[in-house]
Amino acid sequence: MMHPAPESESPYQKIVDRNQLWNRLFAIAGLLSILVGIITLLALVGQLVIQGWPRLSPAFFLSFPGRRPEEAGILSAWVGSSLIMFVTAIAAIPIGIASGIYLEEYARKNWLADLIEINVTNLAGVPSIVYGLLALGLFVYKLNLGESILTAGLTLALLILPVIIVTTRESLRAIPNSLREAAYALGASKWQMIWDHILPYATGSILTGAIIGLARAIGETAPLITIGALTFIAFLPDSPFKSEFPYLSWNWLQAPFTVMPIQMFNWVSRPDPEFQLNAAAAGVVLIGMTLIMNGIAIYLRYRLRQGIKW
Amino acid sequence: MDRLKLELPRKRYISSRTAREIRERLIELVLLLAATSSIATMIAIIFTLVSESVAFFQEVSILEFLTSTQWTPLFADAHYGILPLVSGTLVTTAVALAVAIPLGTMAAIYLSEFVTPQIREIIKPGLELLAGIPTVVYGYFAFLFVTPLLQKILPNLPGFNMLSAGLVMGIMILPFISSISEDAMRAVPVGLREGSYAMGATKWQTAWRVVYPAAISGIFSAYILGISRAVGETMIVAIAAGLEPKLTWNPTESAATITAYIVQVSLGDLPHGSLEYQTIFAAGLTLVLLTLGFNIAGHFLSKRYREIY
């Protein structure tokens, strides 16, 4: 390449041309790889919507699953999913944020911190069905919580805990140290510094992580099947509110449950194509829920990245 | 400030300081307890899997478990060889990786080296949406869309087959591989690229011969994560691959994976403490050891090839 500028007929021009050709070919191949993903996504959503749209009526949301496909609905499934998400959020978010704060702000460089850190990484790689086996052995049979909404919520909470811990740590790490030093300089204690100054700045991105975690939990099927989710439920759990004191009831926590993905799985595995249309409709609702949650998270992340300049 | 402090009774000042100290210690303790929950989870997982598996291996010899080629724990003539489930798992994983690794790597190189940051900001979240889709929906898609499509090309393809399950699983793990590989490649210092361009290399040569090798350790971690996801994936294979445990390496056949077996058995009514109940824990332990093995191998590989610059 150290020779004088080649003429157009020289062997160098041929090499340059060939390299340029490869360059272009590769750019096309890269674009195609991405398109494969995007097109599959569109095909998947398109197929679901085309099949499922005619079934999506108010009655579909307000009826129980039944023997007749055209009358069956997802009432018990979406109520179950909502209640379980509530339990999951209550259990996972405080513990996840607390662990994240400990690991990022308090932990000294010692074996315990290392152990917890390695553990969080490993837990994130454990297949979700193994959490189901854990819950079956521990929650259902050892702790006698039964095959209930409580068990399901706690199982999913364990599953998304690593996601929340990792995002909490990342959010805290993104906050510059000068802020911490400023709080200390004014006489704040460590906790005052975290609670009054660091957490408010980190809330947005921690929330993003929590939403992503919950979006993942809402689509999880396997761990709930292992703990005995029923595929056919024609009743609702007790209402959490009652008319007399103390106005709140916790009976619903012990109720058997089904959730959206399990309802869909049940309908997919029926040989009757009519039921598979119901599966498509349930899929549209399910995908709608997860895409909306992921969309909110992506939007929040985008907004946050633009909002604060340290 | 000084005067204010002097006016405070000395005793109260000290006790409020102690109170504050105690409160701080308490808070730290509570946070530490929360942080140890992850260790408790890991211990509980290991304990549950091992204790039920020990009960299982008191009935079934480990030799039969590892060498028998039949897995029929629910039949009258029960055999407990894990190999058919392992072969199903490995075949679906291999098909998934054959899709996800080339496509994911190409997509990552394209996103990191060929497009402007603005376009990347649009495409990357778009690809990541693929990771957000519930796996039961992918199962539906594999069973009712991809399999009929494949049957037009391969007329003898059975309704349940590992090929369509594996292909769809590959699309599912594509964003994990492309996102993490892209992050690893973008972390490569710009100086390396500039050096390569200064030598007259094209974009493609720089990306493939300089940036990719420099980021290889991060990219290997992405591949390993992809393998873990594929091995542990449940609903796609439970819906689309069939639930018939047989020892085969042919992706166009139906088969059961470890995870699909666990789901299948859990759907029935499992009497607690029975041998059938224990089989799912033995299968689960095998699954964990399998992913653990891949993770450890990957850890050493990425360490071995780590570039230091």
Write the layout of secondary structure elements.
The complex is a heterodimer of chains A (about 300) and B (about 300).
Chain A: H1 11-52, H2 58-62, H3 75-106, H4 111-124, H5 128-142, H6 149-173, H7 177-185, H8 190-219, H9 222-226, H10 260-268, H11 273-307
Chain B: H1 2-7, H2 10-59, H3 62-67, H4 83-114, H5 117-132, H6 135-153, H7 162-186, H8 190-198, H9 203-214, H10 216-232, H11 235-240, H12 258-267, H13 275-304
Can you tell me about this structure?
The complex is a heterodimer of chains A (310) and B (309). With 310 residues, chain A is mostly helical. In chain A, helix 3 runs parallel beside helix 6 and helix 8 runs antiparallel to helix 11. The relative contact order of chain A is 0.13. The mean pLDDT of chain A is 85. Chain B has a single domain, classed as MetI-like fold (Orthogonal Bundle). Chain B contains 13 helices and no strands. In chain B, helix 2 crosses helix 13, helix 4 packs antiparallel against helix 10 and helix 7 packs antiparallel against helix 10. The radius of gyration of chain B is 26 Å and the shape is flat. In chain B, 46% of the residues are buried. At the A-B interface, helix 1, helix 3, helix 4, helix 5 and helix 6 of A face helix 2, helix 4, helix 5, helix 6 and helix 7 of B.
